[in-house]
Amino acid sequence: MATSVIEHKETRKNTATFKNTSEKKTKISVHNLNLFYGEKQALFDVSINIKEKEVTALIGPSGCGKSTFLRTLNRMNDLIDGVNINGKIVIDGEDIYDSNDVIKLRTKVGMVFQKPNLFPMSIFDNVAYGPRMQGIKNRAELNRIVEESLRGAAIWDEVKDRLKSSALGLSGGQQQRVCIARAIAMKPDVILMDEPTSALDPISTLKVEELIAAMKNNFTIVIVTHNMQQAARVSDKTAFFLNGEIIEFDETSKIFSMPSDQRTEDYVTGRFG
Ligand SMILES: Nc1ncnc2c1ncn2[C@@H]1O[C@H](COP(=O)(O)OP(=O)(O)OP(=O)(O)O)[C@@H](O)[C@H]1O
């Protein structure tokens, strides 16, 4: 009898612990977001809560608004003429469109693009570029940040003996990991990735995918991908976009095995897109 009470208590304790660790904080909260390129509406009433330290994949056919949505999260669309946005994007409790400090926002929400876009300078200078722009001049401090960031991007061992060489001499896959190191060097909370492996060979793709999986311990990651297997491999949650709307957003395992909407099912099973 006594044993069964203890067992019961143990079970309850374990359940409570499990519940606490599985409830992650919302990092990015998007409410009724609409975006127009001039007259043309590209996003329709998009609402989504993105959890901290998870990987969220954005999938959907070409032209459905995935990249447009991704770029709203660090206001990259502000750079495009004629863009109009309404709705709300709240990161850590602040509406990002309320502040004029876009530089602060882009420090907190970093970005990695489809093609590696390193500067024509050394590996070291590429990674140190952002911290230097922030005013860090101390050599030891810069050395530490560069090493830490390259380690964080799982490329330190490959480049540690050639930090002074041109970054453009690296392979495409290595360049993309240095781009990730360059993003990490700014100590962001969130990293946006727009099809980061679409220009890479399968082995480099695998390395970047492994890296993304490891990075979610430290960052909130939102990734646009056309590759269904990639979304299934790296992400915790998946949002399916169609014609500028989110049709379904759920656990990745559910989206790929038991989606609620027929259109999601048609897309993930390759019936269109
Ligand atoms: N700078 C722009 N000016 C005008 N229209 C744009 C601009 N960028 C994107 N669009 C339009 O907005 C819609 C959404 O495009 P977006 O690039 O966000 O889609 P996507 O889902 O990321 O596509 P893909 O998978 O092909 O990259 C498309 O109709 C596109 O033509």
From TrEMBL:
Pfam families: ABC_tran
SUPFAM superfamilies from the UniProt entry: P-loop containing nucleoside triphosphate hydrolases (SSF52540)
Residue ranges occupied by any ABC transporter domain in the UniProt entry: 28-268
InterPro entries on file: AAA+_ATPase, ABC_transporter-like_ATP-bd, ABC_transporter-like_CS, P-loop_NTPase, PstB-like
GO molecular function: ATP binding
Keywords: ATP-binding, Nucleotide-binding, Transport
Gene3D superfamilies for the chain: P-loop containing nucleotide triphosphate hydrolases (3.40.50.300)
NCBIfam families the record matches: 3a0107s01c2
Protein name: Phosphate transport system ATP-binding protein
